[in-house]
Structures
1.
Amino acid sequence: MAQQRATTPAPAAIPFARPAFGDAELTAVVDVLASGWLTSGPRVQAFERAFEDAFGVPHAVATNSCTAALHLGLILSDVGAGDEVITTPLTFCATVNVIVHTGATPVLADIDPITWNLDPDAAQAAITPRTRALLPVHYAGAPLAVSAFQRMARRAGVRVIEDAAHGLGTVSDAGVVGTTADFTAFSFYATKNLSTGEGGMLTTADGELAARARTLALHGMSRDAWKRYGPGGRAMYDVVEPGFKYNMMDIQAALGLEQLRQFAAMQARRAEIWRVYDEGLADLPLRLPAPVADGTTHAHHLFTVLVVPEVCGCSRDDLAAALAEAGISTSIHFRAIHLFSYYAERYGFRRGQFPQAEFVSDHTLSLPLSAAMTPAEAERVVETIRRRLGA
Ligand SMILES: Cc1ncc(COP(=O)(O)O)c(C=O)c1O
């Protein structure tokens, strides 16, 4: 008979981003299901108004994703065929895909080597008479040089659309993100600082454009479902332009309202995890996220390190494998856009064009981070990294 060996149980897995949903969110969703109204209705309206109040935003339009919000921002900026939109190579493909879908050409400019955000000087050099908009990203939650982009846009007569998928809670040199661009797009995807599972928000100071965004987000219909079938509604509607199916549901908005109530506490927990990483990894040869300028705030969405084999003695993939073996999930933000086959083939991009973005793309690793993570879990991540780097 085989002898039974004593085994120590494996430590619990640490996911890359555990959703921070508790009893309040569960109750909120059940309440929506019980209410009999699931799609865009009173909770979406309440979430938009609460979001406006929380961040001092003039107009917020809830959508079913940040991708949808970005697309609407471009359309409302009159971006179309023959135009160019300048953005960063260090972003998620959605930022570039929405430009492609308008018929415009995405023009990439390299990142700043310290902040990893779109470099204003590189963006300035990419402006041509065909440039219609600038689409910079608050990478990882690090504040963009918004004032520089505002000045550049004024001089060139173009719009600024900020991709703030990572930037809820970011404060730049120009103010609270959401209040400083012609349009700002936020994401409430599962891993984001505030989550509705899937979801997004478009913000703008222009009330007329916000109203048009709302119409475009629901097929171009003049009257949404609540105005047709809610109390006192009227069934007739007109279609005033060909729109999209980009509206948020009340189920999502109920989650958003609860998450908004807890946002300050969730951000505080993210900052705590950030501190554990910052202090625990400080003496290692990893490159850690750069501190932000005085008077600005990092949203602490992603804690990304650079693992350069020549200085660390192991590659990014080696470190990711060691963490995976210890049950710790990581991610990569991002593989540079111009290295993906579609964009390279269609726009003729090639390696060597954006060296700063390529360096990050080749070496970056994102550590687990969420408001549902404990400081003890972050310590375990630190210990695993220290062991692998022989520290
Ligand atoms: C920088 C950036 N922009 C846009 C998006 C798209 O967000 P969503 O999934 O809400 O459409 C993401 C998604 O993670 C992102 O990281």
Note: The chain has two domains: 23-261, 263-388.
2.
Amino acid sequence: MYSLYFCPGTCSMAAHILLEECGADYETVAVALGKGEQRGEAFRKINPHGKVPALIVDDKIITQNVAILPYITSQFPDAKMAPGNAADYAHCLETTAWLTSAVHPTFSLVLHPERPAGGADIGDVAEKAIEETARATYWAAMEQIDSRLANREWMMGDQYTFLDPYTLVFYGWGKRINMPMEDLKNFSAFKDRMIARPAVRTVLEKEESPLLKAA
Ligand SMILES: N[C@@H](CCC(=O)N[C@@H](CS)C(=O)NCC(=O)O)C(=O)O
């Protein structure tokens, strides 16, 4: 039995979808990020970094999408959620790492341009400049994903992998910060293909995702 600590609409949605795709026996435990529950003592025992997702398997706790997604995948080989070829697998991890280390922090900066100052008042002009730069960088990443999805069904080509649920998170975030995601035709078609998958739809319904309203 797997326990996934998650918050609807956040990056934990990727692991949630993957568990569903793999037919795993799992439960979800909601962490109310909006109420600061991630910083409370109880959750800090699960993840001292105060972030979702966190996955509990037996007595082990795994955090970080870049670890959780390949881990779940490895436990359900029949689901074939990773490329079998070693080089393709490395590329799948490469893009997962890019999303985690470059694109995700950029989204966080759009939402919280004040954070790099660590509580110091840097003023509205500086905050606006940080937000606008982050927006431009995030949009460039969305365009890059859109180009990659031209003439491809999934991020790795013909094979659906753990990278696809993770990529969907970033489409949803683009909409959340009012980017014209519909203009990205390949990425939008990918989003529609994702939503057509029963496992994805189940999770989007559970998480009450706005992506379903737009579909
Ligand atoms: N690199 C981490 C990032 C995790 C992360 O930033 N999660 C966000 C939700 S998308 C979170 O829990 N934020 C709470 C906070 O920063 O207080 C991963 O990919 O798992």
Note: The pocket of glutathione is lined by residues 10-11, 33, 38, 50-53, 64-65, 100, 104 (CB under 6 Å).
